[in-house]
User: Which sequence fits this backbone?
């Protein structure tokens, strides 16, 4: 029974969607007076890709990441805390500069077992652009939902 549930959930990937506008991906930055932030979740590890995780920029809800997806938005310069919310809250602090791009990798993990779906944790880490671009090759664009 547990194997059946795990396998059936594993085939249904969660959609990556965001509630803030998605900037033009053909440009490095759309508004040079803003900074651009990416949260990249390339993992499709086990059945965990079927679980959505919230992303916040300070107190603003940005969207949810699903396996093999990313979020992208632009924000005014200044200090901010980007948080991933799952069974835990993982955060990174950025000092956003106008015209700069920031990449955050969201890793997911859990202990497994029959109730693994309620025990998924996340970890956010700022990464260099070269690594981010490699990871994003595995990812789907987000869907904009108000």
Assistant:
């Amino acid at each position: 029974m547990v194997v059946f549930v795990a396998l059936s959930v594993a085939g249904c990937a969660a959609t990556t969607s965001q509630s803030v506008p998605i900037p033009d991906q053909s440009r490095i930055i759309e508004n040079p007076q803003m900074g651009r932030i990416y949260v990249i979740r390339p993992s499709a590890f086990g059945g965990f890709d079927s679980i959505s995780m919230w992303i916040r920029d300070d107190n603003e809800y940005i969207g949810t990441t699903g396996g093999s997806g990313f979020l992208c938005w632009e924000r005014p310069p200044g200090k901010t805390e980007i948080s991933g919310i799952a069974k835990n809250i993982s955060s990174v602090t950025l000092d956003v500069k106008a015209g700069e791009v920031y990449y955050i990798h969201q890793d997911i993990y859990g202990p497994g077992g029959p109730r693994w779906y309620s025990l998924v944790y996340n970890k956010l880490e700022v990464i260099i652009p070269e690594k981010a671009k490699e990871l994003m090759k595995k990812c789907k664009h987000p869907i904009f939902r108000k």
In short: DSSP finds two helices and ten strands in the chain.
